[in-house]
Amino acid sequence: MEKFDIHILGCGSALPTTRHFPTSQIVNVRDKLFMIDCGEGAQLQFRKSRLKFSRLNHVFISHLHGDHCYGLLGLISTLNLLGRTAELHIHSPKGLEELLTPMLDFFNRQMSYKVLFHVFETKEPVLIYEDRSLTVTTIPLRHRMPCCGFLFAEKPRPNHIIRDMVDFYQVPVYELNRIKNGEDYVTPAGETIPNHLLTHPADPPRRYAYCSDTICLPSIVGQIQGVDLLFHEATFAEEDAPRAGETFHTTAAQAAGIAKAAGVKRLLIGHFSARYEEETVLLQEASTIFPDTLLAKETLCVSV
Predict the structure, then answer these.
(1) Of 111, 146, 244, 289, which cross-links 122 as Cys (Cβ 3.0–4.6 Å)?
(2) 270 with 286, same domain?
(3) Any known ligand binding at 160?
(4) Residue 271 marked in a binding site
């Protein structure tokens, strides 16, 4: 299967700890790198994960709390020092360009590349990126400020040609694209060769959903139904559920309940509160409800 990996650069929340970096991830789809959120130290973790800056062209910021975007200025500056020439696209709710532009003008007066800002609304799902193999759609969340998650979805791929059968029936090259897309082949003699004899199905398209930060929000279940991997914030344990509600965050058990209701294949939890010296309590609470739960940690790579 083609590469579709999630690299955890940071999985902590707002207060710094010696255990975790603030939130940031890299989605690697066929060696195209997409960054989700960019907390402090994200570029250092990028290096530790042995990823290539040159393959990063799009950054998606869920919301404008510092633990999700304070690392952007450093990242942009580093790319400038490296002599980057390709455009960098930053997708976010309204306000980020106004915040960053004065700092970029001061610290990076001679930019070797363009930074392009793309604003998205946060109340309804919006398609914000598309290429030949992938779409990225926002997932409206509910936090203390406008916030969205992101759904990365592979596009369905054409069937794979069975070379021996195509050669056997002497199928002309100009017919192959049509056959890949499910059509039968009609020979010059008028015989119909069923498509299933000439092709086998491509791997089913995969989907990854990222949901952080948000209060427990059952309304997202429909949009993330059946995804291959769900990252959901699990800032608090159940004993701190009142605090989760006050701060518009989710408990590990609530995240697991969302995963179960959506019928996802795997759950990855993160965005841990600094109050927990050991996150196994969060893993245990989530796993009781949704057994196939993973605990995020820095430099972890999960294949979708």
Answers:
(1) 146
(2) yes
(3) no
(4) yes
Of 37, 67, 203, 292, the active-site residue reads 67
The two three-digit tokens of residue 195, written as one number = 């498509």
Tokens standing for 191? 């015989």
d(CA 170, CA 270): 54
For residues 153 and 165, membership in a common domain is answered with no
Do 136 and 193 lie in one domain? The reply is no
Looking at the structure, do residues 150 and 165 belong to the same domain, yes or no?
Answer: no
Strands (E), 61-213: 88-92, 115-119, 127-130, 134-140, 148-154, 160-161, 185-186, 192-193, 199-200, 207-211
pTM: 0.92
Read off the CATH number of the domain in which 98 is found: 3.60.15.10
Residue-number span of the structural domain to which 35 is assigned: 4-157+203-303
Q: What is the pLDDT of residues 164-189, one digit of tens each?
A: 999 998 999 999 999 999 999 999 98
Q: Could you tell me if 125 and 265 lie in one domain? A: yes
Is residue 67 flagged as an active site residue? yes
The annotation status of 143 as a binding-site residue, yes or no, is yes
φ, ψ (nearest 5 deg) of residue 198: -105, -15
Q: Which of 27-36, 52-61, 105-114, 126-135 has the lowest mean pLDDT?
A: 105-114
